[in-house]
Amino acid sequence: MSRKSKLLTIIVTIGCVMIASLAAIYVIGRATLGANKDVLRYHVVIGELQEVLSTMKDAETGQRGYLLTGEQKYLAPHDRAVARIHQEFAILDARANAGELSDQDVADLWHLASQKLDELQQTIFLRRTQGLPAALAVVETDVGKNTMDAIRAKVANITAAQESALAKANQKAVTLLNYRNLVAAVSTLLNLLVLIWAYRRIRDETAGRERIALEILRQKELLDVTLASIGDAVIVTDVDGRITFMNEVAGKLTKWGTLEALKQPCAKVFNIINESSREVVESPVDKVLRMGAIVGLANHTVLVRKDGSEVPIDDSGAPIREPNGTIRGVVLIFRDFSEHKAAENKLIESNQALEDANYAKDQFLAALSHELRTPLTPVLATLTNWEASDELPASFLSDIQMLRRNVELEARLIDDLLDLNRIIKGKLSLNLELLDAHELLQAVVTMFRSEINAKQLSVSMQLNTTRHYVKGDSARMQQVFSNILNNATKFTEPKGHITIASTDDTQGRMIVTFKDDGIGMTAKVLDCLFQPFEQGADVGRYGGLGLGMAISKALVEIHAGILTAASEGPGRGAEFVVTLPSIHASTMKLPAIAGFNLSANPNTYGISILLVEDHEDTAEVMSRLLREKGYSVETCATVAEASKMIRSREFNLVLSDIGLPDGTGIDLIRELRQHSSIPAIALTGFGKDRDISQYKEAGFDAHLTKPVNFQKLEMVINQFFSGGGNR
Hints:
Blueprint: H1 3-69, H2 76-97, H3 103-129, H4 132-139, H5 143-207, H6 213-229, E1 233-238, E2 243-246, H7 248-254, H8 266-269, E3 271-274, H9 284-291, E4 295-296, E5 301-304, E6 310-321, E7 327-336, H10 338-373, H11 376-388, H12 397-418, H13 420-424, E8 432-436, H14 437-447, H15 449-454, E9 458-463, E10 469-473, H16 474-490, E11 497-504, E12 509-516, H17 523-528, H18 539-542, H19 548-558, E13 562-566, E14 574-581, E15 608-612, H20 616-628, E16 632-636, H21 639-648, E17 653-657, E18 659-660, E19 663-664, H22 665-672, E20 680-684, H23 689-698, E21 702-705, H24 710-721
Parallel strand pairs: 9-11, 15-16, 15-17, 17-20, 20-21
Antiparallel strand pairs: 1-2, 1-7, 3-5, 4-6, 5-6, 6-7, 8-10, 11-12, 12-14, 13-14, 18-19
């Protein structure tokens, strides 16, 4: 076996031993971390159970204080506890869904908690309406005490089970840690033995080596031939920096003859300066001799040739060493950098042009977004008001709701169409809530009923899943279902058939299938279906931007779901399948807590509002709706008018558009904040993240993106005048 083979064997052996040791330590370490994670999780679950018990005690404490005193302030602990208990049980439900707690235990505990909260509410009501004796009569039945004792017992039982599991997890972690320490000790010993063996082998292999000057000389001659034929310019110098070799490429670049340059100082032949400052740059040869290491030129270096012309270059210098490390000279390799420099400058110019174009595009899209959203505001505000009104016939309600949903959906579509980059970059924000997917599907079918009837299509709905609740953004999920149903309606011939079905899978997910017998898709269309701006069907006949499916897929994936499409070919229909994590309907039937009102409105009379809006329809509708709610409203259309009105009279609230004829709402709020801290809400079509941050920094207390939902506006106003505001 050759020396090289023996050395390779040594290295491979050492590597195998080290890899095996590290692998064993890693596997056991991962198992130890897993056990420790289980220990931590049991501790957290036990803490959450104790928090539930503590919250129920707080509710009972507040009730007792109120029963004894009759004063409203003693109900504060009770009200806070009622507000927290749903959040805490939501956490326990999540634990149960993840298999960390028993579904039955959580359900039983919630049942007991609901009974206790009902008993507390009953006694509070009796104390408030009939006095202390009536409330004490209920207390003395011991129903509440027995329920609380049952809650304590249930929490204790669940906690005991968790503590038992915790003890097992602790024991497992300790055992794994001992194994890990043992493996580490054994592997360390093995590595030490291998290193000792390797040291002896290497010493034996290197002891007999001898220096061969003839081989070095031969290699030098070979190097000279190689340097002479290399494509780059090469200069070799001695330790004094004088040229001992220069190939023809270097002669052509420097305009020096190869023989003429011999024995010349390298700095004389290789004369380099900084392109911008025109200052002389230190010769890389001198730098190598000074530092004893490989060096390269800084950017923007040019070579001044013998005839005075200049050429940009790129180079590197390296020391030439004897076997003992002594420097014998320097080899300098350089090349003409002109083409690369020109390409680099062109790339910089192109990048700048792209940045300028992208900025112009963003500005245009922001302005377009504002102009598209603004006309929708009076429409949405009017529809929202009609929907909440009791004056219109009940038969109008479904149509009003349909119109309102479509206006809101149009606003969301504007967001997606004008800011597709936000979806691609994963910066799309969601308003998550618990949704009934079946109701959403039925609403989408209702929304498309006119198009369906116009083509005489039959739509059958087979909604069979028992897990039809999902956590998601209602408008976004409506957008997904609408896009799919719109495609099915568009690409199905008259008198065709569409089926919408829902089923459960074995992984706790809901599967929604849209199937039609329309024009179908080729394999090529399927491959690019979910790419933005890809239009598989005849655009002239069917139209469209090719964004619907790309946006839908992104939205479904943001909801942790899957969207797929399939077709057996042209003329054989298409099938779209949406798979979403779901929640069983039984977990949604939690009893409401009596007497807990989240929608109380303050007294609106006497509250004066200044509405700054240059869109006449929006100003007229918003002011009328606010006056109908009892507010005193003044309107104006410019920054100057608003400033004058604010200084001439007092207002309790300012609602301001951002884009105004003589300035911006930001200018107005900055002027206002110099002398007033009254609440101010921005109403605008500019709704990007950076816009919202800018409004907040300027001094606005809240922000609503157009089209403004009037109920949301009321809710924000209520926060300022019912103790929920920031000012």
